[in-house]
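[Discussion] Sanity-checking designs against the backbone

I'm trying to build intuition for which residues belong where. Below is a structure token string of 224 positions. I'd appreciate it if someone posts a full sequence so I can compare it with mine line by line.
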């Protein structure tokens, strides 16, 4: 990501963070945990967080994965269905690919039964990629909402001019913060946080403040 774009995203996120993460407090309070104390975190993503864009084992993980693994036992999953989620209480969906209809039904039920999910749903992803458009290994240019957000009473629209995060509107079961960039929802016995951006986690260092904000929100869900 070039510096101009990073600055634009950082500026937008700084405004949203002030409102959206105010309750969570400063990210410094979310420190590393010893391996034996780390709770599990299911991770479903189309982004090159676990491997580099080449998806080679030797390419190593991203700064985002490094930061998450300081706090959680990260367990990648390929689909948000019952079989994949049954051993988990916390799920990070970081700009996932479109899920099968049956998996969305099972994900919704998992949340209603007490599961907690943080969904990064970017309507206009600018994450750089050397893969051509249409390549199955390239992250989709926009979050493919095949009905999940509508089922939760939310509408996601593209970002306003000059900003990077999409806008969420809707449900009486959700608290909209960050000028619409985030929705915190209570769904049955579970909770879902939806953020209309994923580019903010494309950082060069695991110490980046934006990753602290991400982990803050995961901890907030974890503690509910």
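Best answer:
Here's mine. Compare freely.
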């Amino acid at each position: 990501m070039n510096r101009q774009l990073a600055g634009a995203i950082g500026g937008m996120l700084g405004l949203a963070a002030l409102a959206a993460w105010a309750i969570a407090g400063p990210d410094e309070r979310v420190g590393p945990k010893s391996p034996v104390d780390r709770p599990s975190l299911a991770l479903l993503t189309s982004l090159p967080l676990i491997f580099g864009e080449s998806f080679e084992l030797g390419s190593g993980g991203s700064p985002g994965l490094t930061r998450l693994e300081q706090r959680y036992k990260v367990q990648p999953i390929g689909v948000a269905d019952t079989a994949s989620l049954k051993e988990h209480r916390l799920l990070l969906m970081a700009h996932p690919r479109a899920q099968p209809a049956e998996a969305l039904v099972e994900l919704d039920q998992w949340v209603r039964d007490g599961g907690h999910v943080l969904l990064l749903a970017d309507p206009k992803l600018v994450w750089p990629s050397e893969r051509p458009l249409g390549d199955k290994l390239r992250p989709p240019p926009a979050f493919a909402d095949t009905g999940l957000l509508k089922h939760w009473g939310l509408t996601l629209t593209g970002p306003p001019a000059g900003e990077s995060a999409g806008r969420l509107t809707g449900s009486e079961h959700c608290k909209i913060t960050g000028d619409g960039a985030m929705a915190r929802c209570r769904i049955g016995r579970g909770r879902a946080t939806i953020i209309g951006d994923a580019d903010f986690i494309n950082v060069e260092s695991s110490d980046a403040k934006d990753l602290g904000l991400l982990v803050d929100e995961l901890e907030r869900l974890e503690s509910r």
